[in-house]
Amino acid sequence: MAEPKLLSTEEIARHNTAKDLWIVVDGQVWDMTEFAPAHPVILQHAGHDASHSYNQVHAPSLLPETLTTSKLVGTLDTSTISPSWAKPPPQQNPKVQLQNEKPALSTLISTHDFEAVAEKTLAPKTWAFYSSAATDLVTHKANQTFFDRIWFRPRVLRDVSVRDTRSNIFGQDVEMPVFVSPAALAKLVHPDGEKAIARAVQKKGIIQCISTNASFPVTEIASALSPSNNNKPPPLFFQLYVSKTRPDTERLLRTVWAMGIRVLVLTVDSPIAGKREADERVRMEAAQGAPMGQGTPVNDAKGGGLGRITGSFIDAGLCWGDLAWLRRCWRGKVVVKGIMGAADARLAVEYGVDGIIVSNHGGRNLDTSPPPLLALLDIRQNYPLAFARLTVLVDGGVRRGTDILKCLCLGATAVGLGRPFLYALNYGEEGVAAMVDCEEGVGEYEGFGRVGAEG
Predict the structure, then answer these.
(1) Is 112 a catalytic residue?
(2) Is residue 98's pLDDT more than 50?
(3) How far is CA 79 from the centre of its chain?
(4) Against a cut of 0.85, is the pTM above it?
(5) Is 269 a catalytic residue?
(6) Among 9, 55, 110, 124, fewest CB within 10 Å belongs to which?
(7) Which of 269, 279, 344, 367 is catalytic?
């Protein structure tokens, strides 16, 4: 293969219009003319180095894996770089944070602390995307506040000198009954995105559920883990959005299986994205890519809603009968995420899935859907057989150890936290690990070892 052509900054700079557009990413020069109309942000870097903006939101492998070699024009001759050529576009200049600087990680002791820091220090679009929820936020707020309506009946003079938070989820041992819920585009928070989460949770002994709309391909996230010598599955589940193009989903599942992942979480509560007004109001300044998803996020007449646009590839026609097709494609465990009541829990049993996640998509889809704890109570009262036939997990609104404990008392095996881990990722891998410590310390104090519906 011939060596890539060495290109000077002077030559690259001449290709700086929408009809003839080159950019540099990590030393490679790409012809992006074809994509300029759909990605106006590319014009900001026309004829210049786009590496910083690109690497904030995309995996390094995205361009080489998705573009043909004809788009690779050559490599940058670094000896020709001048200060004027290297200067970033004006809107990319760093902003002085002053009073909005992050406090020391050691000063944060709860999920609420991480959220407060994230609100002040994340980029406006990142905060809008993660914190937003559907329309009037009724469900989003109730997800947390409903936990306050359930009271414990403490029993005293029991021996709690030994406390044990360890558990088992789908045959995988974990240090506590908590997992990282799937969430899109974690690289918006930190350059290492889902890879930093994977490294942290492996060290802490809990499980991460990777989103179809992750910032990195599943192969790169799985490769970020330390090698295991015990032939056990990696501490990873995979969350699936089924594509309108089924062969694309089938290829993705083969890749996931090859990574050793054996638990598939099928999200069913978001066939059509909810109206997240805070997300729509803040327009995107850079293209946000999800290499395993197929949505192309761009601002449009409705706004800049990342959730709406990245979910445009999802098959809104998916039905219970399609589980037969999924079983043919996937040999491992199948978990349905988005169950909101006893009626669908019963159907989950009838269709033979292995587990359910009681969830309303973080309040981001259908406002006034019931909070997960209320849905869990509905299942407990009206279809208790579900707890014998399924592994029941809960996701949404969990912020305290007491919240986790209430779910376990009502029959859940484990609970997922989504936004809290994203806010903790603001501090990188160390922040994620610190978040686990917050929950684990509270869990030991509150006695996970002795839970139950005692009279």
Answers:
(1) no
(2) no
(3) 40
(4) no
(5) yes
(6) 124
(7) 269
